[in-house]
Amino acid sequence: MKVTTFLAIQFLLGQKRRGLFSFLTWMALFGVIVSAAAFVVVEAVMVGFGEDLQNKVIGFSPHVSVTWQPQTQAGSELREQLAALPGVLRVSPLREGEAILRTEDDELQGVKVRGLDPADPPLAKQVQVFFEEGENWASLEAKEEALPGLLLGSELAAEAGVLAAFAETVELLYPFGEVGPTGEVEPNIRRFRVVGTFKSGYFDYDSKFVLVALPETARLFGDYVPETWGLYLKDPAQAEALKARLAGFPGVAKIDTWQEWHERLFSALKLERIGMAIVLTLMILLASFNILSMLMMVVYERRRDLAVLKALGLPETQIAAIFRRAGLAIGIAGGLVGVALGSGICLLLQSFRLPLPTQYYLDALPVRLNPIFLSMTLLLAVLLSWIATLFPAREGRRLTVVEVLRYE
Questions:
Q1: Cα separation values, 385 from 188, 267, 319, Å
Q2: Residue 20: how many CB atoms within 10 A of its CB?
Q3: Hey, CA dihedral for 53, 58, 59, 60, is it positive or negative?
């Protein structure tokens, strides 16, 4: 064992007859542990919330939306080319526009209408669809003996007071229809029967969207709303890269990605994570001040021992190393215990799934542990602890042997 390491241990733990120093040492260690553990838990919850929200967002909508130009290339040809691209799992037709929902009670509400293929609805597993008895995806298609079906978002159905169990009917109005006999544009009106509801887990979707069969959107919107191809990828994070690859692709008029549709939402989440990380970093910084104050008191109380060591020929660099090693010992020990404690708390939260009130739109508190982030937390605790040792190390090496021993 190096002499500097031995002396650092003695300065930290060899204070049994001096209760104040022992208390300050343990308080410095405790501060690093609590700060590191809080950093791990809070950041794991923030990451979990962001991932949960992202999964809900991309579970309802395509990862990339491609609008094609019918006059330049047939849609079926473009679909085959898009499906052949690497990383693309499936390509589904979509048509989405805004309309007015009118209930049997003449209640009006603006909604977003999405047309999809009932034979192969492009919805992820986390989107729950609740059909009424005897209804299914085929019910969305128009039949001679029945109106076409419609699925309402769960929040929208509750807000509009529509109950699918009572076989209620609703109307969708699109203001830009055909020119009537008087020369004025008459709205397109399509009547539907409510066959069920859906729940995506994302409030904006559940409170604004209705789902109908793709042919019904063509009859409702006409040529005002173009049909698009929705691309679903193996890795949704590659949506922007695929968009860049599709730039200039023949027959493509417009390309949108899920990141662009929700840019403000995820930018706000990112900003919130950065702000929280700054606050938690300040907590570790405050804990490192305990290390600084404790080491400064060690310098003051051990000045005679330090002077004797210098008189015996111990270099100033090694005297400074004593305090750096002492501070690093607290930082490493506190960081390791804090990261382990925070990870343990996160694992408990994952196992027991802490329930949340319904207004949060989450079944349980989402927690995601990231090994890279755990390593960064440990490095941050060690780095700030090392910085806290610089001033005490400088003061220790600047002690003058003659001045210290003159009054001893």
A1: 69, 32, 18
A2: 11
A3: positive
| Residue found by looking up tokens 């130009």 in the block | 69
Find out whether 357 and 348 touch, Cβ atoms under 8 Å.
no
State in Å, rounded, how far the first CA of the chain is from the last one. 30
Report which of 384, 373, 385, 387 is spatially closest to residue 276, judged by C-alpha positions.
373
Is residue 149 within 8 Å of residue 256, measured between CB atoms? no
DSSP string of 236-304? GGGHHHHHHHHTT-TTEEEEEEHHHHTHHHHHHHHHHHHHHHHHHHHHHHHHHHHHHHHHHHHHHHTHH
DSSP bridge partners of 126:
none
Two structure tokens written together for 322: 């004593």
Do 36 and 381 meet the contact criterion of CB atoms below 8 Å apart?
yes
Paired strand residues for 174: 188
Reading the chain (408 residues) residue by residue, the pLDDT tens digits are 576 666 666 666 665 445 666 777 788 889 899 999 999 999 999 998 888 888 888 888 889 998 876 655 556 777 888 888 888 988 888 889 999 999 888 888 999 999 888 887 877 667 888 888 888 888 888 887 788 999 999 899 888 888 766 668 899 998 876 665 665 667 888 999 999 999 988 888 999 999 999 888 888 888 788 888 889 999 888 988 888 888 877 777 788 999 888 888 888 888 888 888 898 888 888 888 888 888 787 777 776 766 666 677 777 677 777 778 888 888 899 999 999 999 999 999 988 888 877 777 777 888 899 889 899 999 999 998 888 888 877 777 766 655 556 655
Helix (H, G, I), strand (E, B) or coil at 369: coil
- Token pair 């209705």 is found at 210
Distance CA 221, CA 400 (A): 88
Cα separations in angstroms, 295 against 13, 18, 25, 32, 299 = 13, 14, 9, 15, 6
Measured between alpha carbons, how far is 74 from 12 in angstroms, rounded to an integer? 78
* Cβ–Cβ < 8 Å for 330, 27: no
The upper half-sphere exposure of residue 73, i.e. CA atoms within 13 Å in the direction of its Cβ, equals 16
Structural domain boundaries in the chain: 3-56+265-406, 88-233
